[in-house]
Write a structure and sequence with these properties.
The protein is α+β, with helices and mostly antiparallel strands and 348 residues long. It is built from 9 helices and 13 strands. The longest helix is centred in the middle third of the chain and has 18 residues.
């Protein structure tokens, strides 16, 4: 009997599934390889192998990123740790102008995790990867004793190719540029708070967890001179804009009334003493672009499912350098600093 014909009947993960023996092979074959099925993964070598000539046809520079995901709980409205791992890594590549191609997947699994939960997470990863047009090509599995980690941690790395002429960097913002977001901020952070069930709040907030590479590719066709772009994950919108202001030595001026925040998110923040500007997002980009492109770019972004609520939220000025200033709805100004500490732990 070959490996593909073996049955895998385990209900929970045991230490044997990380031992390197038959139990581990069966887990890898029936959960990971079966789900991630692609020609790069099938040989099950210790590395994935690629044709450099095919990669070179797509661009002149490689982009490489890595991230780890420890979100609690594993499943939340709008996503799960698997979808989050793929979308987060794809987006980290895409906001630098890269076309994401390949992902790795490292799993650290706590003894006792339900196999059905693991299958569900792996299938979610594959669904997100397929939607983004990327392949999960190699990985690693470790199993640790109960209490050594919290159910499941995922590490991913991503490889992409940057097309010639694309130069998106945090230090390229210029006075006169405008600042765009592709929709409501704070949804992911609020969804995680709700999913933890610690506050006895009732709402329907869903995470904005989604891949952005399709939207960004569309944006670059309209505006190949995007100056800065990041996805506003931990630390939220405020942190990203502070990074731009400091790196570019410019001032970022925000219009509070233009920043899209759902009423449910705003209400939760008021109850818990949180600021939506610092809440994590997992499907929102912040772009700094020349003003001359704005009207056409916004119109094009609204044609994409991930950009239908795209809006201008501010502008770039020359001074005071390194500052983010919020023009409030009451006619005053407030300095928006970098996040100090952690509003919400284990958010991604």
């Amino acid at each position: 009997m070959n490996r593909s014909q073996r049955h895998f009947n385990a209900d929970i993960i045991t230490l044997a599934h990380g031992s390197g023996g038959k139990a581990m092979r069966d887990l890898i074959d029936h959960v990971f390889v079966k789900s991630f099925d692609n020609d790069y993964l099938k040989p099950l070598e210790d590395q994935a192998r690629f044709d450099l000539a095919a990669i070179e046809q797509q661009g002149d520079r490689l982009a490489l990123t890595t991230d780890s995901y420890v979100v609690d709980p594993l499943f939340f409205p709008g996503g799960d740790i698997g979808k989050l791992a793929v979308t987060g890594t794809v987006n980290d590549l895409a906001v630098g102008g890269a076309r994401p191609l390949y992902l790795t997947c490292g799993m650290i699994i706590e003894e006792g995790l339900a196999v059905e939960d693991l299958r569900r997470i792996v299938m979610s990863m594959q669904s997100a990867a397929r939607e983004a047009g990327v392949a999960i090509v190699t990985g690693d599995t470790k199993v640790v004793q109960r209490g050594a980690c919290d159910k499941l941690f995922i590490n991913t790395a991503g490889v992409g190719v940057i097309p010639q002429g694309v130069e998106i960097r945090a230090d390229k913002a210029k006075p006169g540029d405008v600042i765009i977001v592709n929709g409501y901020i704070g949804d992911h952070g609020a969804a995680i708070v709700d999913a933890r069930g610690e506050m006895a709040l009732e709402n329907t907030i869903q995470s904005d967890c989604q891949t952005l590479n399709g939207l960004i590719e569309m944006m670059l066709t309209v505006c190949p001179d995007i100056h800065c772009m990041r996805d506003a994950t931990r630390g939220g919108l405020a942190t990203v804009l502070n990074e731009f202001a400091e790196a570019s030595e410019v001032s970022v001026i925000l219009d509070e009334t233009a920043i899209p925040v759902r009423q449910e998110v705003r209400g939760m923040c008021e109850i818990l003493g949180l600021d939506p500007l610092y809440l994590a997002n997992e499907g929102k980009l912040v772009a700094v672009v020349p003003a001359s492109y704005t009207e056409t770019l916004i119109a094009q972004m609204k044609q994409h499912p991930a950009g239908r609520e795209s809006v201008i939220i501010g502008r770039v000025e020359g001074s005071p350098a390194g500052r983010v200033i919020l023009e409030t709805g009451f006619g005053g100004n407030r300095i928006i600093d970098m996040l100090v500490g952690e509003q919400l732990p284990r958010i991604c």
